[in-house]
Specification:
Chitobiase, domain 2, seven-stranded mixed sheet, 18 helices, TIM Barrel, alpha/beta, elongated
Length: about 525
């Protein structure tokens, strides 16, 4: 077998190519044990949907040495260090996927699907035999956190598109879906105790037509908007449906509700949570807003905790992302209640109000068995020690200093993995070559870098075609960074394998740029 026959993304840890092929056909059966029933059902559905194969299930005890089967095996010896580890063995007789957990078996399926020639995709293939090269793969991820963040606060895409992105994440062995659900321009979470959050906060009258970089947004600033209303939110039932869908693909959903800044949508519904009392409107423009939550008011903490109670009741994730980025202190500096809070708590100035707020929320989440995560602006020597830092820009040295002290960090370098930027600013090669652990960073502290996450902010991404265009193929590159050992990553190899991966995107009806477009300014 020649090396070009292996076209798997992310690149596996260890691969051995052997002579011969396995012939996948309508006569092939699927064998599962009790642990892998769900994986067998998933594989059966995918083969039927994309390859026209309707394979039958067969009990392992019925096989008696019979050939032409896809066999799932779950080892009794648990792999504590790498629960996502799997092995895939394709011989002339059978395909065997072995793992210590069902998630490992699921990732084995993703590699198997990429070994099927793309010419077999679509159409009626029931009468055909599909040749799969004989191969042996031993594989496990480099990082525990391999994420994708979708901003639905700025534009709302709905359940169908979110499920599609989850399907694509599963194919790429991504395991964390970070869901940005509230911001100045929209509130997308139904909260029973505060119905105005969606009645008022989920709608805006339009979106700014143009905005100069660095302009601080103000509702008093008269800038033309496009007049196209933006609205939408998810009910509790919607979330439950999507969470179940994600769980079937071994993807954890991390909800983000942004506090104490980026809260204009919440303040439009409940202006009493501000320093000035409003009135406010859901913002039609982007950037940093002057009005934020008033840290001097106890009702702000009561509101935040009540909202988080309902969020925790919906989302099983241990981690809750509370934003915390780009919080201006202008209102706090002049607010009597904020100044009173500073005096009562001995905070020594408005600059310490944010860490006070964050610690109270972190402690509350901890009391409920959860853990706070926030953007790197929350970092402070006095920050709750269990809070996770999500790095995006500026002060990388400071972030790494906190990691050295034991702070857990997820890396999302804006200049490399922000997928909302055009390809001429962040070309695919730049995204691929970015590594979440700097070369000079001591290996003794690598365990504190949980992994990598791509972010897609949607201020100017208003429809699914644009969303997909921006995400692919850069999200594929990031998936390889999250999974593949650093010494095995090679951009030229990636591009060759990408050629064979792109037909899978077509099978999922993904809108993506041409090679010339996504390789701009390499």
């Amino acid at each position: 077998m020649i090396e070009e026959e292996l076209q798997i993304i992310p690149e596996p840890v260890k691969v051995s190519l052997n002579e011969g092929v396995f012939l996948l056909s309508q006569k092939t059966t699927i064998q599962v044990d009790l642990t892998s029933t769900g994986n067998g059902e998933y594989l059966k559905q995918v083969l039927a949907l994309h390859y026209g194969l309707n394979l039958a299930f067969e009990e392992p005890s019925q096989n008696n040495g019979r050939k032409n089967s896809i066999i799932f095996k779950t080892s009794k010896e648990k792999e504590l260090n790498n629960p996502e580890k799997y092995s895939l063995l394709v011989s002339r007789e059978n395909i065997t996927i072995s793992a210590t957990t069902s998630i490992g078996g699921f990732y084995g399926i993703q590699s198997l699907l990429q070994l099927i020639p793309h010419k077999a995709l679509k159409g009626d293939k029931i009468s055909l035999e599909i040749s799969i090269p004989c191969i042996s793969i031993e594989d496990f991820p480099r990082f525990k956190w391999r994420g994708f963040m979708l901003d639905e606060a700025r534009h709302f895409f709905g359940k169908k598109q979110v499920k599609k992105m989850l399907d694509l994440m599963a194919l790429l062995k991504l395991n964390t879906f970070h869901w940005h659900l509230t911001d100045d321009q929209g509130w997308r979470v139904e909260i029973k105790k505060y119905p105005l959050l969606t009645k008022i906060g989920s709608k805006r009258e339009g979106t700014i037509v143009a905005q100069k970089k660095g302009v601080i947004s103000s509702q008093k600033l008269k800038v033309p908007i496009d007049g196209i209303p933006v609205s939408g939110y998810y009910t509790r039932e919607d979330f439950m449906e999507i969470i179940e869908y994600a769980n079937e693909r071994y993807i954890t959903i991390i909800p983000e509700l942004d506090f104490p800044g980026h809260t204009m949508a919440a303040l439009a519904a409940y202006p009493e949570l501000s320093c000035t009392g409003g009135p406010f409107e859901v913002s039609t423009r982007f950037g940093i807003h002057r009005d934020v939550f008033c840290i001097g008011k106890e009702e702000v903490f009561e509101f935040t905790q009540n909202v988080l109670d309902e969020v925790m009741d919906i989302f099983p994730s241990k981690i809750i992302h509370t934003g915390g980025d780009e919080v201006l202190r202008r209102r706090w500096n002049k607010c009597p209640e904020c100044q009173n809070r500073i005096n009562e708590e001995g905070l020594e100035g408005s600059e310490n109000l944010q860490v006070y707020f964050t610690n109270r929320i972190a402690d509350y989440l901890s009391s409920k068995g959860r853990q706070l995560m926030g953007w790197n602006e929350i970092l402070n020597d006095n920050l709750n020690k269990d809070a996770i830092c999500h790095y995006w820009t500026n002060n990388l040295k400071l972030v790494l200093q906190h990691a050295i002290k034991g702070r857990k960090v997820v890396m999302s370098e804006m200049s490399a993995v922000y997928l909302n930027y055009p390809y001429n600013l962040i070309p695919t090669k730049k995204t691929y070559l970015y590594d979440p652990i700097p070369d000079e960073y001591s290996k003794n502290y690598e365990k504190y870098i949980l992994g990598i996450e791509a972010c897609l902010w949607t201020e100017f991404v208003s429809n699914k075609d644009t969303l997909e265009w921006q995400a692919f193929p850069r999200l594929i590159a990031i998936a390889e960074t999250g999974w593949t050992p650093k010494n095995k990553r090679n951009f030229d190899s990636f591009l060759k394998r990408l050629e064979s991966f792109l037909p899978l995107l077509k099978a999922f009806d993904v809108n993506y740029p041409t090679k010339e477009e996504f390789l701009q300014d390499q």
